[in-house]
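To fix ideas, we quote verbatim a fold written out as tokens:
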Amino acid sequence: MDIPVYLLAVLLCITQVQADVFFHHGDTEVRYVTKVKNGQVDKRDECSCYCKRKWGTDAWDCCACGWADNICFPGDVSLTLESGEVIAMDELKQGHRVLAVTEGGQLVFSEVKTFLKRYPDNMAVYLDLITEDGQTMSLSESHVIFSSTTNNTKEMIPNFAGRVNIGDYLFTTDNCQSGICPVKVKTITHNVRKGVYVPLTDEGTVVVSNMVASCYSSINHHLAHLFMTPIRRYPWLLGDYQQQGYSPFISFLKNLGHWILPNNMQFDLSKEGFVAARTRTDL
């Protein structure tokens, strides 16, 4: 039976939705937009984000997205201390021992040596990876998480969160008898959350909201772990930036990594990340 033209038009309107996210960056109201079509999300238009004019009522101008530099975890994700207590990221302190994973995939408790970045009051747009069993992992797109295209724990590899696809597997400690178990990603979306945190552990990994993640972002996990060796041994090198802000020294090391590493070993925010942001669901 043929579908009437007017009904097709209605269905098109339903399947093509503007998913706007509003938040404040400093004293500026920002609108973040993705276009959802048929359960998938197209690239946004030419402008990455819009800022509301302070002198107008409903006028918005294309503007630079300073929040794209917030490469990290939000403050409301959870971590497990050696005592068994579960705390929020915004409660985490230097010297805490948190659940992490060794290079061989074994669960251990690892000391938080310092924070590579810490802005408790900043708001940012985060990627939410939602699994089939309802778990949510929130982090920035360029942050490294451990994933696989199969449900084999032995094939768990570090991957940029923005390159995780629906149907891929993350690795969780929740309800897992063997330590770490695969769980399939069902939905990928974005949300605004408060706080910008990057804790650095001895292992270079951390279990966040029961999911295995790296302490590093935007460049290859193993090389980042090597670059951060001096900081893990001598965290005092960061001075006051251990508790607030982002050290110019860390910024220099990261920029150096982007300069010398091939494209397949880094995450380019100008080509993927927020410019190709997407909200997807396994329908």
